[in-house]
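Data follows
____________
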Amino acid sequence: MREQLTHSLKAAMKARDTQRISTIRLINAAIKDRDIAVRSEENVKGVTDEEILSILAKMIKQRQESAKQYEEAGRIELAEQELSEIGIIETFLPKQMTENEMIETVDQTIQEIKADSIRDMGKVMGVLKQKHAGIMDFSRAGARAKEVLSKK
């Protein structure tokens, strides 16, 4: 994952794509911050690829919220910049699940762990986040799990 980011940064620099350069640098800075936070005698390598995917997903969510606030405030140019950054960040994420795949996965997970009430929501989401980090929209998955579990 780090190699892919480094390669993409070099390509963006050669192409003089300032938006892509700055976004990739923001990604690298976030990864380095997390590296420093988790570094210890046992963990000298820093964050794993799965954690990098989590960082990217968090960055996308932050930008979605910012874009929404900018649009509400009438700052369309800033909202467009946030959406552009989202597009760049998404290029580093694996292909996202479709809505039908997400529904099927949530339903299967509920059956697998034998969740039978809304109190099991945390268990369901924990398993989903562990198995499908970076490829599933957990806000939609949470809504689906809540819908299914509230009917039981």
Observations:
- The chain has two domains: 2-90, 99-150.
- DSSP finds seven helices and no strands in the chain.
- The mean pLDDT is 89.
